[in-house]
Amino acid sequence: MEKIIIFDTTLRDGEQAPGASLNPQQKLEIAFALEKLGVDVIEAGFPIASSGDFQAVKNISAKIKKSAICGLARCLKPDIIAAHKALRGAGHPRIHLFLATSKIHLKYKFKKAEDEILTLAKDAIRIARKLCPDIEFSPEDATRSERDFIYRIVEMAINEGARTINIPDTVGYSYPQEIYSLITDIRNNVSNIEKAVLAIHCHDDLGLSTANSLSAILAGARQVHCTINGIGERAGNAALEEVVMALKTRKDVFGDFFTQINTKEIYRTSRLVSNLTDFVVPPNKAIVGRNAFRHESGIHQDAVLKKRSTYEIMDPHDVGISSSQLVLGKHSGRHAFGDRLKHMGFNLGQKQLNQAFTRFKDVADKKKDIYDDDLRIIVQDEIRLIRPVWKLESFEVASGTKIKPYASVILDKKGKLLSGSSGGDGPVDACFKALEKITNFKAKLEDFRLEAVTSGKDALGQVSLKLKVSGLIVNGRGSSTDIVEAAVRAYIDAVNKLET
Ligand code: KIV
Ligand code: ZN
User: Fold this and answer.
1) Strand 68-74 vs strand 93-100: parallel, antiparallel, or unpaired?
2) Which of 98, 171, 234, when mutated, tests ligand 1's pocket best, judged by the most ligand atoms within 8 Å of its CB?
3) What is the pLDDT of residue 384?
4) Do 48 and 168 fall within a single domain?
5) Global pTM?
6) Is the CA virtual torsion 280, 283, 284, 285 positive or negative?
7) Can you say whether the dihedral through the CA atoms of 235, 142, 215, 41 is positive or negative?
8) Can you give the CATH number for the domain in which 490 is found?
9) 13: CA distance to ligand 1 center in Å?
10) 323: exposed, middle or buried (C-beta count within 10 Å: 0-12, 13-18, 19+)?
11) Which stretch of 169-183, 240-254, 336-350, 466-480 has the lowest confidence by average pLDDT?
12) Ligand located closest to 232 CA
């Protein structure tokens, strides 16, 4: 069997998704989850892009030992130096160089001829190769580039010491047969191709990224670039969970291949990434969506009870979805709470554990049965920000058909209590206006979503929102059995991000 190397770019291309920015601490947390998931390479960031990115790659390099850590760089010396410096602590560092090769990019982006691009790439690979033995090279927009130029630049890159050649479908334009023939043609026309691993990097603009990645594997690619939940630039990248589960489930087609992904970690990692990036996983998302293993039709339910495989091609346990079993209630102690969290893969420090426990007790007072999904939300809510500037102390709302909605809110700002009140069009609007008065941020609500985390009348509601403050979009999330409180918490979460 041949191994398919899983290259996860959630922290780089995934973070390029509009509005998905993560701080270095959150990136580290995701990197731990990716390591536990078993990804071979973590693309941790683009070190030259910002000091936050540099720091994140540096922290991840220092802490993650099993996966290789990769930093992205343009074919420019300062980029390469920054990547090298950020990766210094890594057990297995990799520098990923990229340079566009399509005519449209050469003409409009660079105003350069093919030979100039070739020289730039060659010089960059030489510099990088001296600093790091593991170099990956990507001819950006490869799927829209002239074949002959791709062969030339790939051959040169391998001659200069690139160990991996990645073929990006940068704009998500290709369809599976095209990818198959591109990879086949590269294998047949690049004389030294056997000295490198061929990789594929697909975007999802036409919804074909997973199909294209699988097609590349059939044609000879042995590394796949992907992201958790498929997040990424524009419509996103190929979703790790889809590629991995397709390889596992369709043994009739992909029986010659394996990955070292521990699929039981998929669901947990998906929820963590969704929570920290504020990208809600659509209910119908393959593998990790809330409905991915739910059967609504009576005919389906009946058949599944008789024989699961009548309507289920995968076992939800294989991706780490447990049938929401009852875990804890209001009488559960700190010890049982901590144990359950450990079992779910959370490793909290004492302070975070105490904070999460207090919140758990709060929720358990209002909600009788606490399920794993509830716990995950409670904990992730509490550990989102290390030192939040604003904390909810209390709030009150009055609302009804015959009265004008009115809210009073008290926040704790670094130990000092501040209060504000306001009327509004509804209870949530009144709370947000009160919060605006206290925090002094002029915020416009751009998006507001509410979903139930578990089922039942006392389900935990989760609010995800987007605020626009001085042209900047910030996401926020909050949860509670009370949906107004969930909205207040989401608003405070967003405002806290403005303070960091
Ligand atoms: O989509 C793309 O081309 C990229 C490159 C940097 C590999 O993300
Ligand atoms: Zn990309």
Assistant:
1) parallel
2) 98
3) 62
4) yes
5) 0.84
6) positive
7) negative
8) 3.30.160.270
9) 7
10) exposed
11) 336-350
12) 2
